[in-house]
Design brief:
mainly beta; 5-stranded antiparallel sheet; single chain
């Protein structure tokens, strides 16, 4: 797994150090799976003939660790991640974002 190290502690008496690194941690409900693998849906605003619409984008991810309802994933994630929906989702669908 590749990540960015954000802090290193001073060596302990035993010679060990503590490393702090940033992982993308998401609710486990955001992770979707199909025959192509694991992914999340991101919400992207797009200009359409009807004005600005929220559109779903599929982003493949790799789950590095999971527990307590959360999942650490590798990959570059920027934007709103869909964590749940009351209707079936698919890439390219227009969605409303609940606050």
């Amino acid at each position: 797994m590749q990540t960015t190290i954000t802090a290193l502690s001073d060596p302990s008496e035993e010679g060990s150090i503590q490393i702090t690194a940033m992982l993308h941690c998401l609710p486990a409900t955001a992770i979707q799976t199909d025959s192509s693998g694991m992914f999340v849906y991101l919400v992207e605003e797009r200009a359409t003939l009807l004005g600005i619409q929220n559109v779903l984008i599929r982003l493949p991810v790799t789950v590095e660790a999971q527990g307590d309802g959360m999942a650490a994933v590798s990959g570059s994630i920027s934007g709103q991640v869909v964590t749940g929906a009351d209707k079936p989702l698919s890439e390219g669908s227009w969605v409303r974002v609940a606050s």
